[in-house]
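Fold it.
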Amino acid sequence: MTALDALSTWPVDHRAAAVLVLKDGSPQVAETTGEQQRTFALASVTKPLVAYALALAVQEGALEYDDAVPFPEGATVRHLVAHAAGLDLDSERVRYGLAERRMYSNQGFVYVAEALERATEIPWRDYVREAVFEPLGMTSTTIEGAPGAGGVSTVADLSAFAAELLAPNLLDPSLLNEVKTVQFPGLDGLLPGYGTRKPNDWGLGFEIRDHKSPHWTGTSNSPETFGHFGQSGTFLWVDPVIGVATVVLTDRDFGPWAQPLWTEVSDLVVSSYSNS
């Protein structure tokens, strides 16, 4: 039995997954299941891809996280990408003041993409493709829809992205450290599907596990674990303490079925590979 064997009993039509382990500073695929080249809708797992492109634009000096954005008033790129701008989920309504509450917002990522496009003078989809997908060999990944939820990818492609998060080659490690560091610490907010978390920690486009319970990662994942899950039944997490990453894609929307199963498989991964 391997950690990913548990996926064989999941109530989904299709599933695919991979575990990566950092060995001697080099990420290696340790285990896979399912069709690695099958495409799945990512839903909100799109956000880390756009956020990483944004970090690369910051690295090249095209913009800064603390640059002002046109809306909401007084907000910066950092507010938007860390879900601290007070914006509604899917509308332009401003529900809270700046850094008052962690208000998860797809709309905020629309403005992130617009900021990226203004700064680079390149259509944001093209920039994400040229900055992230092409260098990592993610040939099956596209974002045809919204920047916060419109991506399509494969486990093979997201494994390449997870490897970059484990041992970055594109992004300076110090900037990756900022990406996965809590922004605006102490903000409470709703973690979709899990209720209000106090605090609801987030980095720059990546959710940070901290001590949230219950949570979509494993009970044994370190508090430093970062990643994202999507409404389409997808998730990607990286646990930097143990040097392990996991990608799981399915074709069934997230719901009560997923909560115990996602945690179970993540705990199996941690127990199987934490001493690798």
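The longest helix spans residues 258-273.
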